[in-house]
Amino acid sequence: MSFLSLEQSRRDIAIDFLFYGFNTSFLTLLLYAICPSNKWQMSLFLVALGVVISSAVEYFSHRFILHGLKPFSVWHHRHHQQPKSSIGTPTIVSAALILVLIFLPMWLFTTSFYAIAITLGVVIGYGAYIVTHHATHHWKGRNRWLVNRKRWHALHHCVNPDCCYGVSSSFWDHLFATGTKKIKVESKY
């Protein structure tokens, strides 16, 4: 498989996991090295903000881009038709998007400290997403959290593709009423 292919091999998935795991560690160490001693609370706040940003991007891109904008919706429809296939964003594309849309603007318009902290949060959030999404489709686990995530994602794939857009979290689905209540309302008719 090509490093730009939507079809991902086991090697591609391993690279994704290793890349985001390594970068989480690297950015954490870098943040530790450059964070002023009086800015640790700000640092934690910015990392948490990055995780929230990542979660929001996951929800909104899934809802409005992957389910509404061609050619992304066509590619994503393939994923719905073949849920056991490893169809996803190549590492080079996701990393480039984080670099260009998150790190560089933050670095240009704020400080390197802010840029690294926010980017670390986004990398943590995106890493959580890729692991969770892969796990919901391929792992057999009895862990309560994983079982709940698998059930939530199965509702999106098997019951109603217009609900349950969040993969790593259902927060935004609850906030925007695109969660399980939508299924119950629609199933009455």
Number of beta-strand segments: 0
Q: What's the end-to-end separation, in Å?
A: 45 Å
Cα-based radius of gyration, to the nearest Å:
18 Å
Tell me the overall shape: globular
Unreliable segments (pLDDT under 50, ≥5 consecutive)?
185-189
Feature tags:
189 residues; mainly alpha; 8 helices; globular; disordered C terminus
Can you tell me about this structure?
With 189 residues, the protein is mainly α. The chain contains eight helices and no strands. It has helices spanning 10-34, 40-65, 72-81, 91-109, 112-138, 144-159, 171-175, 180-187. The longest helix has 27 residues, at 112-138. It is globular and about 50 Å long. The N and C termini lie far apart (45 Å). Mean pLDDT is 88; it is low at 185-189.
Task: List the topology elements.
Blueprint: H1 10-34, H2 40-65, H3 72-81, H4 91-109, H5 112-138, H6 144-159, H7 171-175, H8 180-187
Summarize the structure.
The protein is an all-alpha fold and 189 residues long.
